[in-house]
Each structure stands twice: as structure tokens, then as C-alpha cells.
UniProtKB/TrEMBL annotation:
Designated name of the protein: ATP-binding cassette, subfamily B
Residue runs in coiled coils: none
Residues of the full protein shown: 319 to 577 of 583
Compartment(s) where it occurs, according to its Swiss-Prot or TrEMBL record: Cell membrane
Biological source species: Acetitomaculum ruminis DSM 5522
Domain ABC transporter residues, every copy: 22-255
Length: 259
């Protein structure tokens, strides 16, 4: 009997693999002296769809930027696959993250080169396909005539919606396992909305997804919704759970909007 037990034990004692989940453990963060995140705990499971919702200024974009490793927490830990992201070389960690920022950072380069930043090894054809998929029509037309538009910097004269579609095309070309969309359709005009939604759908298949969305209707299907309020996670869970336990979520849901 003892022998049998010994055979079984190593198996049952085997540690469950953490997978490549992202975990925040008591994360505090502030800009200059003002603390804006006051001890965030959250787990984002590999391959899951997650949403961050909450009032404007509650800290959603700051959480997204910490996941994208823009800054280190002032206190606490952020781990990826069980490893503190501070201990992962930035270039290696960055390969895992496609981040569409609310600010749609573009560089003082052509649209083509801005999209190519998602994958410097991409062929022109792949860059153009990503652009087409995201509705950068103008850019494609101009490119076919033999010139390209400067996207960012002083030479950039693109609208918010155009900049956003370029950011999405860049993220698509990167093909990273974790996709962060911070208000990714906030500036999209109705004409391009369906197109952007389709390209976003392509971008996110099979990925770990973190969305920050205005319209609650688009995130109600998330595996896990985190309600962010004044730098804290007030509640998290599925839509059904939150409607029962989070008055703030219920209130936002009834108004059907968050910002
Ligand atoms: P949300 O995305 O939920 O609207 P943010 O994460 O952008 O909220 O902001 C959280 C808080 O941090 C706000 O009080 C905001 O004013 C402040 N904040 C955001 N970015 C900066 C920055 N670069 N410098 C100083 N304060 C900032
Ligand atoms: Mg924000």
C-alpha cells in the first residue's frame, strides 16, 4: 500500500502550471508624487477576454500602461507566467504585447513605416494587407500613386480615427499573444466602425485580451470584467455577477456607458 501511495503522491503534489497569466499583487503607482493606483490585485488568465470599466480618471489606462511595462510599480509586483516582469528583458517582454493606446502614438514617419513598427521584418505586402484590413484607404490610394503620408510628429495631419486605425493595423501586424485595446474604437466614425470591429475581431482571435471600452454593451461578454474606481478594483467577475454585487457596475450598465 505504501509503495502505491508513493507512486501516486508525486503526481498529486505536482504544481499546477501558472500558464502565461498576468498577475498584479498589491500594485501601487503614482505620477510624480500623487498616487493613482492604491493596491491593485488582479489576475488575467492566458487566452481570456477581460474588460476594465470605470469612471474617467479611475486608473484604467494606467493599469494598461503598467501591463505594457511602460513603468514599474512603486510598490507590489506584476508577474507574467509567474516571473516578475522586471526580471524579463524588456525587448523579450515587449514581443508579447500589442498595445493600442488611447493616445494613438504615431512616429514622424510614413504611415507604412508606422504600421511596420509592429513587425520590422514584415514584407511590404503584409504591411499593406494590415493597412487595408483596418481601413487605411487613403494611405493605400496614395501609396499606389507612388507616395505615402507622414503619420505622426509635426508632419502628421491625420484625424483621430485615422491615427487609431493605423495603431490597430500596427498591432495586427505584430501578432502578439496579449492584446490591449484602450478605447480602441472611441474615435471611429460610423462609416468605419464595422470595418474596425471586423479587424479588431481578427486581431484578437485566440489572444489574451484586455479591453477598456466606452460602450458597456461591447464588453458584457468578457470572461472577466474589472470595475476600477478611484485607483482600486472595486469588484470583478462576469456581467451577471457584477450586476448582483457591484452598485457602480449596475449604475453604469443602466446608463449603458462608461468613460
Ligand atoms: P482612466 O483611463 O480611467 O480615465 P487614467 O489611468 O488615465 O484614468 O488616470 C488616472 C489618474 O492619473 C487621473 O487622475 C489622471 O489625471 C492621472 N494621470 C494620468 N496620466 C498622467 C500623467 N501622465 N501625469 C500625471 N497624472 C496622470
Ligand atoms: Mg483612459
Amino acid at each position: 500500500i505504501l509503495e502505491k501511495r508513493e507512486l501516486i503522491r508525486p503526481k498529486t503534489l505536482k504544481k499546477k502550471p501558472v500558464g502565461n497569466s498576468i498577475e498584479f499583487k498589491d500594485v501601487h503607482f503614482g505620477y510624480s508624487k500623487k498616487e493613482v493606483l492604491h493596491g491593485i490585485n488582479l489576475t488575467i488568465k492566458e487566452g481570456s477576454v477581460n474588460a476594465l470599466v470605470g469612471p474617467s480618471g479611475s486608473g484604467k489606462s494606467t493599469i494598461a500602461k503598467l501591463i505594457a511595462s511602460f513603468w514599474d510599480p512603486d510598490k507590489g509586483r506584476i508577474t507574467y507566467g509567474g516571473v516578475d516582469i522586471k526580471d524579463i528583458p524588456l525587448a523579450d517582454y515587449n514581443k508579447n504585447i500589442a498595445y493600442v493606446s488611447q493616445d494613438n502614438y504615431l512616429f514622424d514617419e510614413t504611415v507604412m513605416e508606422n504600421i511596420r513598427m509592429g513587425n520590422p521584418d514584415a514584407l511590404d505586402e503584409d504591411v499593406i494587407n494590415a493597412a487595408k484590413a483596418c481601413g487605411c484607404h487613403d494611405f493605400i490610394m496614395k501609396l499606389e500613386k507612388g507616395y505615402d503620408t507622414i503619420a505622426g510628429g509635426a508632419g502628421g495631419h491625420l484625424s483621430g480615427g485615422e491615427r487609431q486605425r493605423i495603431s490597430i493595423a500596427r498591432a495586427m501586424l505584430k501578432n502578439a499573444p496579449i492584446v490591449i485595446l484602450d478605447e480602441a474604437t472611441a474615435y471611429t466614425d460610423p462609416e468605419n466602425e464595422a470595418l474596425v470591429q471586423r479587424s479588431v475581431a481578427k486581431l484578437i482571435t485566440g489572444k489574451t485580451l484586455i479591453v477598456i471600452a466606452h460602450r458597456l454593451s461591447t464588453i458584457s461578454l468578457a470572461d472577466c470584467i474589472f470595475v476600477v474606481n478611484k485607483g482600486n478594483i472595486e469588484a470583478f467577475g462576469s456581467q451577471d455577477e457584477l450586476l448582483k454585487k457591484s452598485p457602480l457596475y449596475k449604475q453604469m450598465w443602466e446608463a449603458h456607458i462608461t468613460s
